[in-house]
Amino acid sequence: MQVSVILAHPSPKSFNHAIAQAAIAELKQNRHQVIFHDLYAEGFDPILPLDEIAEGVSLPKEIERHCQEISSADGIIIVHPNWWGQPPAILKGWVDRVLRPGIAYRFLQGDKGEGVPVGLLRAKAALVFNTSNTPAEREKNVFGDPLELLWKCSSNLRIPLDGRGAISRRSR
Q1: What predicted TM-score, i.e. pTM, was given to this entire model?
Q2: I want to staple 76 with a disulfide (CB 3.0 to 4.6 A). Which of 7, 82, 126, 136 is the partner?
Q3: DSSP for the chain?
Q4: Where do the domains of the chain lie, and which CATH numbers do they carry?
């Protein structure tokens, strides 16, 4: 099984890095192939240029590689902190540039935005590790549910579950 692990935290000494490394070690121990991206260490550019928005356009090699890897993954793990109720901008930019039409989803013919897109990713499961140093109740009441802000939208688009799985939440 090929698993894509995406990390979005700037400090190599962070709890997020420890989570990502533990996940990678466990995956490798169980003989899974791991494709790992530390977005900060790689200097990933989160800005979505106008000429990348349309489906089928020529993409920079780095974005093309990310698109190919995520579309061929059997599973996806994303690790990020919650800052001001959202993931870091670098991860939101990765979502915008990589989970794109024609790669992660498509619209049915004639759909002008009123329907639910059809998921295209091969992954049967996704796991999001979201960390925060704010008490869970305050986090949800003040900033909103961080997993709903970005990732619920992805599940509504059936990314990457394509209706084959369920969304569950665990807090500690």
Answers
A1: 0.86
A2: 126
A3: -EEEEEE--S-TTSHHHHHHHHHHHHHHHTT-EEEEEEHHHHT------GGGSSTT----HHHHHHHHHHHH-SEEEEEEE-BTTB--HHHHHHHHHHS-BTTTEEPPTT--SSSPPEE----SEEEEEEE-SS-HHHIIIII--HHIIIIIHHHHTTTTTTTSS-------
A4: 2-156 (3.40.50.360)
Distance CA 41, CA 44 (A): 8
* pLDDT tens by residue, the chain, 172 residues: 999 999 999 999 999 999 999 999 999 999 999 999 999 999 999 999 999 999 999 999 999 999 999 999 999 999 999 888 788 999 999 999 999 989 998 888 888 767 777 888 898 888 889 888 877 787 778 777 666 666 655 544 444 444 445 555 565 5
* String of DSSP letters for 12-50: TTSHHHHHHHHHHHHHHHTT-EEEEEEHHHHT------G
